[in-house]
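Milestone M4 deliverable, item 7.
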Amino acid sequence: LAWRIGNKGQAEELIDFLKENGVLLEEEEPPAWSKMPAPEEVTPVDILLVVANYPCAGNVPTPVPFGVMLIASALRDIGLSVAILDMAVDRLEAWRIVPALRRYRPKIIGISAITAAGGEAARVSAWAREWAQREYPALRGIILGGHHATDFQLEASQSGLYDLVLAGKQAFLTAPHAFAALLAGHVCNIP
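Output delivered:
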């Protein structure tokens, strides 16, 4: 459609149409760190599992994150407290992880991302590391999983954004061991 646009007015009309129909999403500038929303209550957990948003999806419904729910259940079975933040459902931008981190104060963050959300997962991790540096040095690590971790394992591992990258179709089987080992400070003991 863009090549048919003859003037600025038509371009603005198309952009408005795309925004109204959820195809084009406006990015909001993050506020200054001191102006980031504070939580109404603090509910500390051992692990916060995050489903990264994929902004390019527009208004396409997001799939139910069965893998994340399976991992949360397995982690709860071994006695760990877990919260899930599905950033894709509400189309949350990466910086909006900060209020959730302030609320849950997790020891470990697990990020799940499909390949289309790989960039957003990296931004979530960067915001989480900034939060840990500024406010919460007790963060023990950030783990990446999901299709993006499997498809781009080497790149994710070398990015410096993640402490562990869980890849492969059976990653959910090793996830409880990985989270427990990272909590205990025994990263080298992960099966």
